[in-house]
Amino acid sequence: RKEVEQDPGPFNVPEGATVAFNCTYSNSASQSFFWYRQDCRKEPKLLMSVYSSGNEDGRFTAQLNRASQYISLLIRDSKLSDSATYLCVVNPGNQFYFGTGTSLTVIP
Amino acid sequence: NAGVTQTPKFQVLKTGQSMTLQCAQDMNHNSMYWYRQDPGMGLRLIYYSASEGTTDKGEVPNGYNVSRLNKREFSLRLESAAPSQTSVYFCASSEAHLFGEQFFGPGTRLTVL
């Protein structure tokens, strides 16, 4: 079983839409969680950490559900510049595991 | 402040050839990592160095060796390249092992024929 699983998409949404991605993880002992953003043919960059209480950064909200073992990312008021692949990252204690990524395209 | 740099950016090898991918960071980070990224597989950890002087295997170490040359530099060596090693290779660093943000280099696109 994979440590981290994501719906690969693609998600194609109009500008201004709200879109949500989920990511499930298999190890209940996982300790830290992140969302990274990766533009086409570029390196991943940290979007935000995910805290137990949930956290928000502008139009982005990340949440953690330990009981169901998933993390989510909500993007409100989507912009064209949000088009990218979003990677969830989980640390079960020994290393970081990356999901395969969810592709988002925001359409004018 | 360059962050994490990698050389080369692109490389084509023939099966059986060897090469070393270079990585350097100027953020005084203790931990450094080598990942490979393949379509549909996500990033997978090859080797890591939690601190200067230590290296450990990750998820997919077979066919690779690493050297933590000093605190700044962490190299990845392919001794006898195989087509299965065709991939994009990313180096990353973080302040401490398994703590906080990882900063990635721009990647090396390797093709093994």
Report on the architecture of this protein.
Chain A has 108 residues and is mainly β. Helix content of chain A is 0%, strand content 55%. Chain A has strands spanning 4-6, 11-14, 19-25, 32-38, 44-50, 55-57, 60-65, 70-75, 84-91, 97-98, 102-107. The termini of chain A are far apart. In chain B, strands 2, 4, 5, 6, 9, 10 and 11 form a seven-stranded mixed beta sheet that branches. Chain B is globular, with a radius of gyration of 13 Å. At the A-B interface, strand 5 of A face strand 5 of B.
List keywords for this structure.
heterodimer, A: 108 residues, mainly beta, six-stranded mixed sheet, 55% strand, B: 113 residues, seven-stranded mixed sheet, four-stranded antiparallel sheet
Which word captures the global form of chain A? globular
Q: Report how far the terminal alpha carbons of chain B are from each other.
A: 36 Å
Structural class of chain B: mainly beta
Number of strands of chain A: 11
Structural class from helices and strands of chain A? mainly beta
Which pair has the most extensive contact?
A-B, 20 and 18 residues
What is the helical fraction of chain B, as a range of percent?
Answer: under 10%
Low-confidence stretches of chain B: none
**Helix content, binned percent of chain A:** under 10%
Strand content of chain A: over 45%
Regarding quaternary structure, what we see is: heterodimer
Listing every helix as H and every strand as E from the N terminus to the C terminus, the arrangement of chain B reads EEEEEEEEEEE
- Report the order of strands and helices of chain A: EEEEEEEEEEE
Integer-rounded radius of gyration of chain B:
13 Å
Q: Average pLDDT of chain A, to the nearest integer?
A: 94
Separate helix tally of chain B: 0
Rg calculated over all Cα atoms of chain A: 13 Å
Largest sheet entry of chain A: 6 strands, mixed
Care to count the β-strands of chain B? Answer: 11
Number of helices of chain A: 0
